């Protein structure tokens, strides 16, 4: 049922007492929906599924407790909803609660731990949440939880902590952990046991916080080792020192396909990401300490006393499956160093660095001077985008005979060369 902006709520709905499913939408802020809800909840007690998304609801009436048979409740895109009533926690049969894009939602009901049958809590883009109730740790049947917010601890033992994640053993799909910089104790990271959550395939670790605990962030990041089968990983706003976690390597992340690193402001070098065997997409942004990218990025740098010559049966290839590479807002980055694969003792390999790269995107890297030779020789490279990189754009013009072999080239938003295929 879709209501126009000034349409009255249809009264006949109240009389369909055996109704099991109801979907009400209004994309034009129809205020009659909110006024109708108390009576609606009182009359339609057989409802199993209720969709109130896009309903312009500011407050969910406490009468919702009367929908004791409710299994599915969708409140997504109610941008003015500030909180949910405590009576919501008495809906013991509820299995799915969708709060996606309730962007002003400030808190979840403190009694949410009573919803023991809850399987799915969709809270993507609930930007107003600053903490989560401690009772969340009791929701051991949860299969999907989009975002976890780590609070600064100002509410004592009343809020959900990083360590409480250990109780949610069956989480699957994607999980975003916000406010990791607020975690006051590295033991909380160890307690979370993220590496045991084998059904998680996407993980975002966001250290954005209301406090500054830089000395702990490196230890917390080390403790938050993802499960070995994770395919998507983001690390954002990490303020710790330039100590890469030991698990950011080929053996621990063998299945990783997509990686995003952003706002790790104290890193002056990039991790040895070229070792990741399955990586297909890499985005790096706002690394304000990075001035050069070289062999350490490719994973070619060896410790003193360690051989740099791999066996001839397994020649070294950096980024063997990378298809898309993007750098953006790297304000101090000047040099992308030419590197060579260490000698293999056999005939020199072609395309030993990023042999499958198809797309290279560079945005707002204002000081970057040139591209490394190993990129210009790639036959796989089909798309080059250079936006707001004035020094590099000038380099592209000078090196046009070498650059022009790339079929699609975009400079400052304009295609200067485009393939018809």
UniProtKB/TrEMBL annotation:
SUPFAM superfamilies: L domain-like
Spans traversing the lipid bilayer: none
InterPro entries found in the cross-reference section: Leu-rich_rpt, LRR_dom_sf, LRR_R13L1-DRL21
Annotated Pfam families: LRR_1 (PF00560), LRR_R13L1-DRL21 (PF25019)
R13L1/DRL21-like LRR repeat region domain residues: 162-287
Name by which UniProt lists this protein: R13L1/DRL21-like LRR repeat region domain-containing protein
Organism of derivation: Gossypium raimondii (Peruvian cotton)
């Amino acid at each position: 049922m879709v209501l126009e902006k000034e349409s009255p709520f249809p009264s006949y709905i109240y009389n369909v007492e055996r109704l099991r499913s109801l979907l009400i939408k209004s994309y034009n802020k129809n205020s009659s929906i909110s006024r109708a809800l108390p009576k609606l909840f009182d009359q339609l007690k057989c409802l199993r599924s209720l969709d109130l998304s896009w309903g312009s609801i500011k407050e969910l009436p406490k009468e919702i407790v009367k929908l004791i048979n409710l299994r599915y409740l969708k409140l997504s895109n109610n941008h003015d909803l500030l909180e949910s009533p405590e009576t919501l926690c008495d809906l013991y049969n509820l299995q799915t609660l969708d709060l996606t894009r309730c962007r002003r939602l400030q808190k979840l009901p403190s009694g949410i731990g009573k919803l023991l049958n809850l399987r799915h809590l969709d809270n993507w883009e609930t930007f107003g949440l600053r903490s989560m109730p401690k009772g969340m740790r009791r929701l051991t049947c949860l299969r999907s939880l989009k975002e976890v917010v780590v609070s600064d601890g100002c509410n004592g033992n009343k809020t959900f902590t990083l360590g409480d994640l250990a109780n949610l053993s069956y989480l699957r799909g994607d999980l975003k952990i916000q406010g990791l910089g607020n975690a006051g104790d590295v033991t909380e990271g160890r307690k979370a046991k993220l590496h045991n959550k084998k059904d998680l395939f996407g993980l975002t670790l966001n250290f954005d916080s209301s406090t500054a605990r830089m000395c702990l962030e490196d230890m917390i990041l080390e403790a938050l080792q993802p499960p070995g089968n994770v395919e998507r990983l983001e690390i954002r706003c990490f303020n710790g020192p330039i100590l890469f976690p030991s698990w950011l390597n080929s053996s621990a992340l063998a299945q990783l396909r997509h990686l995003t690193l952003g706002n790790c402001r104290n890193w002056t070098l990039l991790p040895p990401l070229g070792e990741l065997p399955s990586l297909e997409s890499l985005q790096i942004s706002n690394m304000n300490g990075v001035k050069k990218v070289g062999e350490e990025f490719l994973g070619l740098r060896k410790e003193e006393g360690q051989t740099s010559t791999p066996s001839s049966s397994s020649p070294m290839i950096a980024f063997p499956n990378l298809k898309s590479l993007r750098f953006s807002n790297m304000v101090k980055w000047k040099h992308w160093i030419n590197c060579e694969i260490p000698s293999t003792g056999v005939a020199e390999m072609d395309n030993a660095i990023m042999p499958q790269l198809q797309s290279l995107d560079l945005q707002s890297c204002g000081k970057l001077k040139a591209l490394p030779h190993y990129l210009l020789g790639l036959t796989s490279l089909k798309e080059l985008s250079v936006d707001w990189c004035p020094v590099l754009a000038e380099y592209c013009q000078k090196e046009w005979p070498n650059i022009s072999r790339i079929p699609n080239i975009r400079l400052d938003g304009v295609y200067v060369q485009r393939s018809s295929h």
